[in-house]
């Protein structure tokens, strides 16, 4: 697999970064995961815009303009032996010595990109849905930044791994935030409900696509705080992400959501999404 690090393409297994890289020492960096269908990146401009916003939020100068990023991503895609790809893109603040929390005056960001084969969810998951567990959101107050500091997400995901479930749905102050690596939608009485973008969640690219599709095809989305009680009593519960697309959550903490199978509104939205990404 050909990857990219700081200006050169090379096999992923040959690439190394210095131990003083602040990504390694502090989790001081940001990332994106961009799905690629048949060598065409999906919503690349939106991913690059979110990358720029994450970099600005953590005060790392964006090492490239949008055209250069696009060219890099397209070249990486062209160099892979497979068409459906998941592009991982990471920028850290770079190496600095001595170790010090203070942001160094001069550091050269470390830029890493690599591709994996993209495996959209298996048909059985689309048709039968997945299990999830709920937990109190353990993360910090800037979940809107797509940072590589993911320990909160990792520990949240561990709870669903322990329960042999596919995702952990998180709540803060009695309100839905998001999944450990996804955004969450509910359907109740035919209404599609999801929280508004805020510091409590990442604004997913897939979240935006689903809202766009809901505005176009219905049901009209209602964007407002969603309570834990509303999640647990929803008719339908969905997760969305670039890698999982849209999946129905059919049980939460072992209790069925709706009738315990993917609902009609999910199936319609899944169809719209498949057409949209094609
Ligand atoms: N994760 N919220 C969190 C915490 C996420 O990690 C992700 C995606 C999302 C959905 O964002 P998007 O629709 O832009 O993929 C929401 C990616 C897939 C990852 O960590 O690999």
UniProtKB/TrEMBL annotation:
Pfam families cross-referenced by the UniProt entry: Aminotran_4
One MF term in the entry's GO annotations: transaminase activity
GO CC annotation, single: cytosol
UniProt GO BP: amino acid biosynthetic process; carboxylic acid biosynthetic process
Alphabetized UniProt keyword annotations: Aminotransferase, Pyridoxal phosphate, Transferase
Cofactor entry: pyridoxal 5'-phosphate
SUPFAM superfamilies: D-aminoacid aminotransferase-like PLP-dependent enzymes
InterPro entries for the chain: Aminotrans_IV, Aminotransferase-like, BCAT-like_C, BCAT-like_N, Class-IV_PLP-Dep_Aminotrnsfr
Name of protein: D-amino acid aminotransferase
The organism of origin for this protein: Chitiniphilus eburneus
């Amino acid at each position: 697999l050909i990857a990219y690090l700081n200006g050169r393409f090379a096999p992923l297994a040959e690439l190394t970064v210095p131990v003083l890289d602040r990504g390694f020492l502090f989790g001081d960096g940001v990332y994106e995961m961009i799905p690629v269908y048949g060598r065409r990146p999906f919503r690349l401009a939106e991913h690059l815009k979110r990358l720029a916003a994450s970099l600005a939020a953590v005060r790392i100068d964006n090492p490239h303009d949008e055209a250069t990023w696009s060219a890099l991503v397209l070249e990486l895609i062209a160099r892979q032996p497979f068409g459906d790809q998941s592009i991982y893109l990471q920028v850290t603040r770079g190496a600095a010595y001595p170790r010090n929390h203070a942001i160094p005056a001069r550091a050269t960001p470390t830029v890493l990109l690599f591709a994996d084969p993209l495996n959209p969810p298996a048909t059985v998951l689309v048709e039968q849905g997945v299990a999830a567990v709920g937990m109190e959101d353990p993360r910090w107050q800037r979940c809107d930044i797509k940072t590589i500091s993911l320990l909160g997400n990792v520990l949240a995901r561990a709870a669903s791994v322990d329960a042999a479930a596919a995702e952990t749905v998180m709540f803060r102050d009695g309100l839905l935030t998001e999944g450990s690596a996804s955004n969450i939608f509910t359907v109740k009485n035919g209404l599609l409900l999801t929280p508004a973008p805020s510091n409590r969640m990442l604004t997913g690219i897939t979240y935006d696509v689903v809202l766009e599709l809901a505005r176009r095809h219905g049901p009209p989305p209602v964007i407002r705080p969603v309570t834990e009680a509303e999640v647990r009593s929803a008719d339908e519960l969905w997760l969305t992400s670039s890698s999982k697309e849209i999946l129905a959550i059919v049980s939460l903490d072992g209790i069925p959501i709706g009738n315990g199978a993917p609902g009609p509104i999910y199936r319609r939205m899944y169809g719209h999404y498949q057409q949209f990404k094609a």
